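lol forgot to send this yesterday, sorry. struct tokens for the thing we talked abt
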């Protein structure tokens, strides 16, 4: 298990007033969902959930316009990652870096041979490989073109591609659609209710892919791995709710404003992004020192990225929030660096 994820709010309790460390939008209106779950909580809490959340898989299939046998609901996108690594145990896995650490952790757990594109001569590896691609990527916010992804997957049938689209709800760039890739047997797409609807505490995700591959994954699923609250939330959000960012265009414009203002701070480098979150590098200061200062002096939490493979102790990540909160973050970082 990886230590040092983003959103380690649980470590700091009431010290943190504004959370920039999670890539998930923090100001979603969940009142409808919470009222719905509260109204039926006695029934949900005193009964077992479906051993397999087939009813939710059917609803997702209708939304995605695919066969229900092409969908597997999981306990968050992270369970999907570990199940896929288990299914493909002992494979040669290529994990371009820097990216989400759980891919490598899951692969190590199931004895994969792990290589990183930026450090390994791929010519020396077997032709049968698994590529793990985070798109949009975490922590960078880079997005690979949909046309390129489609071409890459279709021209390389010997490779298995695991494409994690958990942050697809936080970019306006086109993403691969399950309905357009049903004929492809070497692709698994990972999706996240937790991120799209800002409900990370409920742990709800799903995988889409060719029915034959999903059937193999299904054989690895533990009974009752997805709880009643999560299943019911999924039903509600697909039929009544809406994505967590009601105006994505405006939100991404605010994220771009934050990035521009951050770039104006001496000693801070901010990388390009196609999402609401951005990777930053400090010239001289340690990210951990800045993190502690922001918590203690301003009640703000950022993501120290020093535990991402290939990133130094000077890297951190922030996700845009409300304009006034973003302005306060800019002022606080400027205060710390120019003192």
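and heres what i got for the seq, position by position
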């Amino acid at each position: 298990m990886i230590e040092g994820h983003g959103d380690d709010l649980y470590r700091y309790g009431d010290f943190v007033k504004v959370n920039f460390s999670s890539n998930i939008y923090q100001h979603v209106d969940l009142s409808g969902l919470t009222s719905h779950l509260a109204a039926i909580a006695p029934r949900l809490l005193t009964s077992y959930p479906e051993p397999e959340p087939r009813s939710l898989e059917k609803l997702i299939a209708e939304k995605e316009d695919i066969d229900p046998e092409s969908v597997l609901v999981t306990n968050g996108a992270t369970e999907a990652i570990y199940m896929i690594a288990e299914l493909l145990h002992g494979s040669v896995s290529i994990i371009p870096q820097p990216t989400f650490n759980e891919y490598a952790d899951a692969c190590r757990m199931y004895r994969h041979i792990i290589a990183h594109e930026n450090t390994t001569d791929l010519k020396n590896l077997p032709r049968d490989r698994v590529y793990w691609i985070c798109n949009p990527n975490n922590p960078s916010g880079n997005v690979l073109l949909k046309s390129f992804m489609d071409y890459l997957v279709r021209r390389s049938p010997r490779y298995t591609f695991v494409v994690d689209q958990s942050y697809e709800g936080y970019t306006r760039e086109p993403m691969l659609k399950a309905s357009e890739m049903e004929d492809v047997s070497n692709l698994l797409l990972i999706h996240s209710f937790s991120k799209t609807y800002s409900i990370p505490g409920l742990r709800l995700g799903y995988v889409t892919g060719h029915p034959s591959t999903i059937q193999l994954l299904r054989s690895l699923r533990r009974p009752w791995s997805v709880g009643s609250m999560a299943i019911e939330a999924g039903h509600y959000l697909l039929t009544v709710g809406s994505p967590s960012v009601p105006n994505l265009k405006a939100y991404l414009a605010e994220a771009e404003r934050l990035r521009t203002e951050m770039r104006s701070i001496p000693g801070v480098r901010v990388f390009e992004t196609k999402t609401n979150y951005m990777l930053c590098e400090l010239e001289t200061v340690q990210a951990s020192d800045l993190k502690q200062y922001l918590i203690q002096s301003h009640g703000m939490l950022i993501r120290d990225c020093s535990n991402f493979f290939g990133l130094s102790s000077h890297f951190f990540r922030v996700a845009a929030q409300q304009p006034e909160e973003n302005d306060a973050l800019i002022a606080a970082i400027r205060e710390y660096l120019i003192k």
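The radius of gyration is 20 Å. anyway ping me if u want another try
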